[in-house]
Amino acid sequence: MARNVALQILRGILSNIPQPLNDGEFYLATDVNQIYVGLGGINFSLRSAIMAAVEVNGNANPTHYIEPNSDGSVVVEGPSGAALAQDGIDATGVTPLAGATGIRGWLSSLYRSQQYFDFEPKGTQGATFLSIQQPKDSGRSKVILTLTKTAAITTEALVSLTQKKGDATTTTGTSYTVTAGKILRIQTMQLYITNITAAVEPIACAVRLREGAASGGVVSVASDIIAQLETGIEVATATLNAPGMPSTISFPDGVEITGGQQIGVSELSTSIDAAVTVVVTGYEY
């Protein structure tokens, strides 16, 4: 269908644009392919009015632009004005994540920028925290120290503990050293005692959780006490394997031991006619 009216507007190179255009008057700058409109004594570029500036890494320079085309598509321009490829290598100034380049890489890298948040996958120890997951829940590894039905001793000494850390093979020793760079959070400590002889006598037992001196001091029977449990068989009995009253302590917020520190458990009973079980549970993070 033939057009009855052809609208023509002022045109020419940008340097010849009237200063200012009248309100509502248009001017086509043919050398830069931009349309200007006058309003209130100012010449406005329609292209600038519909472009969105995006700051990269919190820096307004360089600025990236999202520019609409006449067909409805958009082009993302980099600092030099060159369009960025959807994929492939670009020069946005932001290193893309592995496997993501071009616009996709730029956007994903901006999203992951350390300047904004420290996003870490579950189980990874992060350097900083701004997350719905608490720091103590990041990179957990269980720690369980046990002494199982071992004959009681009447002279206090450190006992040899079976040590289970994460899913690694268990080890044994009278001391446990917290992994460097980690924190051990102790959650519970349990004590059980059973009669292992027909002898008729009451038995008392005490166990103490101890920590070596600061800066990795060796733990010993004289080291600082950080928790203690006591129990016993209060009524004299001749029943073999008669249990005493279990004794348990929980630490809702945990007792934290810093990396490199040593802990151990000492035990002291009034008779050797008992078997002692101790369980210390916690985790490193």
Structural summary, described in words:
By secondary structure, the protein is mainly beta. The chain has three domains: 10-49; 52-111, no CATH class; 139-284, Jelly Rolls (Sandwich). It contains two helices and 18 strands. The protein has helices at 46-49, 102-111; strands at 10-12, 26-29, 34-39, 42-45, 52-56, 59-68, 74-77, 141-151, 157-158, 161-165, 171-173, 176-177, 183-195, 203-211, 224-233, 247-258, 262-269, 274-284. It has a six-stranded antiparallel beta sheet with strand order 11-10-8-18-13-16, with no helix packed on it. A hairpin with a 5-residue loop joins β10 and β11 (171-173). The longest helix has 10 residues, at 102-111.
Order of helices and strands: EEEEHEEEHEEEEEEEEEEE
CATH topology of the largest domain: Jelly Rolls
- N-C termini distance: 75 Å
- What is the name of the CATH architecture of the largest domain? Sandwich
The low-confidence parts are 49-63, 84-92, 111-117
Proportion of residues in extended strands = 35-45%
Number of helices: 2
Secondary-structure-based class equals: mainly beta
Overall number of strands: 18
Highest CATH level, the class of the largest domain: Mainly Beta
Helix content: under 10%
- Count of distinct structural domains: 3
Q: How many strands, what sense, and barrel or not for the largest sheet?
A: 6 strands, antiparallel
Question: Radius of gyration from the CA trace?
Answer: 37 Å
Spatial order of the strands in the main sheet?
A: 11-10-8-18-13-16
Rough outline: rod-shaped
User: Taking all residues together, what is the mean pLDDT?
Assistant: 78
